[in-house]
Amino acid sequence: MKVSSKGEYALRALLVLGQHHGNVLSIQEISDKTLVTVHYLEQILLQLKKLGYVSSKRGVKGGYFLEKATDEVNIGEVIRDLEGPLSPMACASITKYEPCPLEEGCQLKPLWSLVRDTIAFVLERTTLEDLLENRLPFIKGDELDVIKRSY
C-alpha cells in the first residue's frame, strides 16, 4: 500500500474541516491551511463530497464543511475509498485479489498478508477525531492500545 498525494491531501483537508466542524470554510482557507493548491484541492474535495465525507455551500459565504461527525470518519475507509486496497501486493488483497503464478507454496504471501492485516488493523481503528485529539493506536505485544501523543 502506498498513500498518494491525493490521499495525504484529502486527510489534511478533512483534518482542517474537522478542526472547524460546523463551520463552512472557503476552498482558499482550506488551501492556505493544507498548503495544497486550490486547483488540486477542488478535485479532492469533489471526490470527498461524492463519497459523503464533506458537503458544500454555494454563494458569497460558501465553501466546504464536514458532513459527518469526526468520530464517524474512519481513516481506513477514507484511504480505501481514495486509494484502493490496503494490501501491499495484489495476491494478499482481500478486496482486489489477483492470483499469482507463484502463489502456491509462496513464502512471501504470509508476510504480505500480515502487513495488510496490520495496516488495516491500525487504520480501521483510527477516526478523524482520534487524529484531531492526537490519540493514535499502537501495537503493544499482540494488542492494539491507544495513547494520546504530544508532539
Walk me through this protein's architecture.
This protein folds into two domains: 5-66, Arc Repressor Mutant, subunit A (Orthogonal Bundle), CATH 1.10.10.10; 87-148, no CATH class. It has six helices and four strands. The chain has helices at 5-19, 27-34, 38-50, 75-83, 109-124, 128-132; strands at 54-57, 63-66, 135-140, 143-148. A two-stranded antiparallel ribbon has the order 1-2. A two-stranded antiparallel sheet has the order 3-4. Helix 1 (5-19) packs across helix 2 (27-34), helix 1 (5-19) packs across helix 3 (38-50) and helix 4 (75-83) crosses helix 5. It is elongated, with a radius of gyration of 18 Å. The mean pLDDT is 88.
Mean pLDDT score:
88
CATH architecture descriptor text of the largest domain = Orthogonal Bundle
Radius of gyration: 18 Å
As for the number of domains, it is 2
As a percent range, the share of strand residues is 5-15%
The CATH superfamily of the largest domain bears the name: Winged helix-like DNA-binding domain superfamily/Winged helix DNA-binding domain
Report the uncertain regions.
none
Morphology call: elongated
CATH class of the largest domain: Mainly Alpha
Structural class by secondary-structure content: alpha+beta
Number of helices: 6
The span between the termini is 26 Å
Regarding quaternary structure, what we see is single chain
Output the helix-strand order: HHHEEHHHEE
Estimate percent helicity: 40-55%
CATH topological fold name of the largest domain: Arc Repressor Mutant, subunit A
- How many E strands? 4
* Largest sheet: spatial strand order: 1-2
Sheet with the most strands? 2 strands, antiparallel
